[in-house]
Specification:
Blueprint: H1 5-15, E1 23-24, H2 25-28, E2 38-39, E3 49-53, E4 64-70, H3 84-92, E5 97-100, H4 114-130, H5 132-135, E6 137-147, H6 149-159, E7 175-179, H7 194-200, H8 218-226, E8 240-245, H9 254-265, E9 270-275, H10 291-307, E10 317-318, E11 340-341
Parallel strand pairs: 1-10, 4-5, 4-6, 6-7, 7-8, 8-9
Antiparallel strand pairs: 2-3, 3-5, 9-11
Length: 342
């Protein structure tokens, strides 16, 4: 082993030059030195927050591309902490990265819903653009990555026409990376589609709703369409990397296939990555995927950002010497982890 050490060091030096630092998921999961959140909204300052992870070499006056991360949780749960390791990595790679929170949907009929979740994400985007000088970001190069419900919200920011605020500040994404996203919010076969029930709220969101409670009304269908990215795909949509696990039992991969096909038909640059064996929320640390799979996914994102001019150089993320976590058990046999790209 001692004889091999110089060789190993030489290999690592070639892979990771002195100007970069190889980082593991174990390091990224360290909760020390988490930045203080900033508040972007006044409706709920404890939730309407942005947690900024800035590159250590960011100089005053610089304008760099940036990345916004939107957590999932069925619009009813989750928080920005789940994407802290991801934000730390891309900040270390050189781009300001922001994990955002948004008000969550409630069951009560007149309570918050998916449109309010989207409105908060738009408010966060406007805040960042309005404070672009403070955070060293290029307001014309903001990429958005989201998982599950966050993937839906990221896709909304990349497709649905932007209602600019009174100052004309845009909330649109310039690049989108939706992971296992819901892109069609309408009622499914039998009107039992769980995300449509979040649109309906009330008794429809019960664990065992009655048949009557899930019958869609025209108003509910209209609301669902208003927050369905698939319905708004056009030539003006943001370029996209769409990723989905083929073993996803929560959101069918067909959602991502249809979305990618629609973007391609509209002439929008899109890359579809379907991952055999991957379950729902495959990009999240300490969840359904192994560390190796999460690292591979994050490197895929890294290369996509680099291809679009958001990053420079090669990825620096590597697998920990000892597993950083053990994935949640699965009920079906795991298939090949190699991604299928379309």
């Amino acid at each position: 082993m001692i004889r091999l050490l110089p060789y190993l060091l030489a290999v690592l030096s070639a892979l990771y030059p002195a100007s970069t630092h190889a980082v593991t998921m174990t390091e990224l999961l360290d909760t020390n030195e988490i930045p203080a959140p900033v508040v972007y909204g006044t409706n709920d300052p404890t939730i309407q927050i942005i947690v900024p992870f800035l590159p250590k070499d960011l100089n005053q006056g610089e304008k760099r591309p940036s990345l916004v991360l939107i957590h999932g949780g069925g619009w009813k749960g989750g928080d920005p902490t789940i994407f802290f390791p991801t934000a730390k990595y891309y900040a270390a790679r050189g781009i300001p990265s922001f994990s955002i929170g948004y008000r969550l949907a409630k069951q009560e009929t007149n309570a918050l819903g998916v449109p309010e979740c989207l409105a908060d994400c738009r408010a966060a985007m406007r805040y960042l653009r309005s404070h672009s000088t403070e955070y060293g970001i290029d307001p014309e190069k903001i990429a958005v990555l989201g998982d599950s419900a966050g993937g839906h919200l990221a896709a909304c920011l990349g497709t649905i026409p932007d209602p600019k605020d009174s100052a004309g500040v845009s909330s649109a994404a310039n690049l989108m990376i939706p992971c296992n996203p819901i892109v069609d919010m309408g009622p499914g076969e039998g009107n039992t589609n769980s995300w449509f029930r979040v649109i309906q709220k009330g008794a429809a969101m019960d664990k065992k709703p009655t048949p009557e409670s899930i019958i869609p009304t025209p108003d509910q269908i209209a609301v669902a369409k208003s927050v369905s990215p698939l319905a708004f795909v056009s030539a003006k949509s943001a370029p996209a990397l769409v990723m989905h696990g083929l073993d996803d039992s929560i959101v069918t991969p067909e959602q991502s296939r249809k979305f990618a096909e629609a973007l391609k038909a509209a002439g929008v640059p899109v890359k579809l990555v379907l991952i055999p064996g991957a379950r729902h929320a495959f990009i999240l640390p300490k969840y359904t995927a192994s560390e190796e799979s999460v690292v591979e996914t994050m490197i895929t994102v890294d290369r996509f950002l680099a291809k679009n001019g958001y990053l420079k150089g090669e990825p620096t993320l590597i697998v920990s010497p000892s597993p950083a976590w053990i994935p949640k058990p699965r009920s079906t046999p795991q298939s090949s982890p190699s991604p299928a790209v379309r």
